[in-house]
Amino acid sequence: MPETASTTRAPDALLPALTPLLHEWLPRQRWFAGKGRRVTGFTLDAATELLPLDGAGPGLLHLLVRVEQPGRPAGTPADCYQLLLGVRTQLPPRLAPALIGRIRQGPLAGRAVYEGLRDPRLAGLLYERLRTPGRTGPLRFHATTPLPPALAPRVLDAEQSNSSLVFGDSFILKIFRRVSPGANPDLELPLALAGAGCARVPAPVAWFESGASTLGVLQPYLRDSRDGWRLALDALADGREFTTEARALGRATAEVHLALARALPTRRLAPSETELLAAAMDRRLHEAAQAVPALLPHVPGLRAVFAAASGGAAVQRIHGDLHLGQTLRGSDGGWAVIDFEGEPAKPLDERRSPQPTVRDVAGMLRSFDYAARTHRPWNADWAARCRAAYCTGYAEAAGVDPRADPALLRAYETDKAVYEVVYEARHRPDWLPVPMSAIERLSTS
Ligand SMILES: Nc1ncnc2c1ncn2[C@@H]1O[C@H](COP(=O)(O)OP(=O)(O)O)[C@@H](O)[C@H]1O
Ligand SMILES: O=P(O)(O)O[C@H]1O[C@H](CO)[C@@H](O[C@H]2O[C@H](CO)[C@@H](O)[C@H](O)[C@H]2O)[C@H](O)[C@H]1O
C-alpha cells in the first residue's frame, strides 16, 4: 500500500485552538447524537492533515474527536465523531456559510476553520485520495475498481444522520459521522450482497477506514431515482394509490433478505433466546419511557404486546432501519435499498447482531403509517392498503408471509414505534405526534 505524505499532528497541539469552535458548532449539527446533554470537553483520537494546514492554500484536517458528556454508562467510551475541517487564511465569500470559526491562539491564530466537505477543492481531494488506494497517516483507502478522475463534487443537503457528497452524478460518498470500532454494516452488508449477486443494493466501489472503524463508503449514484418517501407523499397528495409500488417494494425487501441469508450466517434461536427478544423490547421501552415521559401511561399496554410475541426463532443479518426513505425507485420502476447502517442510536454490536426478518418488514409498515399521518386529511385506509400490498409482495418472493405470525409482527411494529418516539423527541419534536398516535393504537387495541 503506498503511503502519501501526511502529518499526523500531536493531538494536544491542536485541541486547545479548536475546542472553543467545536463547543459552539458540533452540538448543533443534525448528526450529533448527544443532543440535550451538556458537552464538557473533547479529546482527539487522531488528527491527520490530508492537506498541510500551514501551506499557502487551503488545508484539510481529518479529525476523530471524542465528545465528553455527562450521563455516559460506566465503562463506555465517549462518542467519537469524524470531522473534515478546512483551514484557510482568507475564506472566499462563497464558503462563508461553511465557517465554523476563527482560531484565536497558537501558530494558526487568525485562520478560518470551516466545513471542509463544502469546499469543492477539498472534497475533490478526498475523491482523488479514494481513487488511489493506500495510507495517509492512520487512514487507509481502498478501491475495488478503477475510478474516473476529477469528478465535480456537490454536498447532498438531505436531512441526514451522516454527510454525503455526490461526485459528477456518478458516485456518492457517505461520510459516517459517529464512528464506532468495527466494520460499519453499511459497508459490510452491501459488499456481502454484491458478492451474493444481489443487484438491489448499489455495490461499494471504494471506502476508507482507521483502525477497525469504517469512515466512509463510495458507491454508484442512482441519478434517475427518487426515494420511496417522496414518491409515497406525492401519491397521497395526488390522491393516488401506492399499492403497486408497495407490492414491488415487498418483493425487493424479500430478495435482499434471501441474499443476506445466502451470504451471511443464519441460525435458529433456542426457546430461551426467543424470550430474550421480548425482554430486549421491554428494556428498550423502559429506557425510552425515561427519556420521553409521555410514554409512561402506555407502558403496561405496550409490555402486553411484547409478552404476546413468542416466535421469531430464525435470525439472520437484516437491514435494521428499513423505511421508505431508505428505498430508491429507478426510472425502470425497480426498487433499490440503501443505508444498511441500522438505527443510528443503537450500539454497533447490537446493529450487527442477527435479527428476525420481520423486524425490517415492521419498519416499512410503520413508514406507510408515517406517510399517511403526515398528510392532511389523514388517510388510514391508504396506509392499510399499502401495508397489505407490501406484505403480499414480500410473501410472493420469500415464500413466507410476514402476517403469518401477527403477534410477532405487532411486537416489532411496537418496538419500532417506541424507537421513533425517542428519535423524534431528540431530532424533530414537531413529528412526535406521529409515532405517539401509533403508540396509542398499539397499546390499547
Ligand atoms: N446510491 C445512491 N443513489 C442515489 N441517491 C442516494 C444513494 N445513496 C443515498 N442516496 C441519497 O442520499 C440520502 C441519504 O443517504 P443515506 O444512506 O440514507 O444517509 P444517512 O445514513 O445519513 O441517512 C438518501 O435519502 C438518498 O436520497
Ligand atoms: O435515515 P436514517 O438512517 O437517518 O433514519 C433515521 O431518520 C429517519 C427520518 O429521517 C427515521 O424515520 C422515521 O421518519 C420517516 C419519515 O421521515 C419514516 O418514513 C420512518 O418510518 C420513520 O421511522 C428513522 O427512524 C431514523 O432511524
UniProtKB/TrEMBL annotation:
Which InterPro entries does the entry mention?
Kinase-like_dom_sf, Mak_N_cap
Q: Annotated pathway, please?
A: Glycan biosynthesis; glycogen biosynthesis
Name the catalysed reactions.
D-maltose + ATP = alpha-maltose 1-phosphate + ADP + H(+)
In terms of domain of life, where is this protein from? Bacteria
EC number in record: 2.7.1.175
| The Maltokinase N-terminal cap domain, residue ranges | 25-119
| Alphabetically ordered keywords of this record | ATP-binding, Carbohydrate metabolism, Glycogen biosynthesis, Glycogen metabolism, Kinase, Nucleotide-binding, Transferase
Q: Which family does it belong to?
A: Belongs to the aminoglycoside phosphotransferase family.
Subunit (UniProt): Monomer.
Q: What is this protein called?
A: Maltokinase
Which organism does this record belong to? Streptomyces tanashiensis
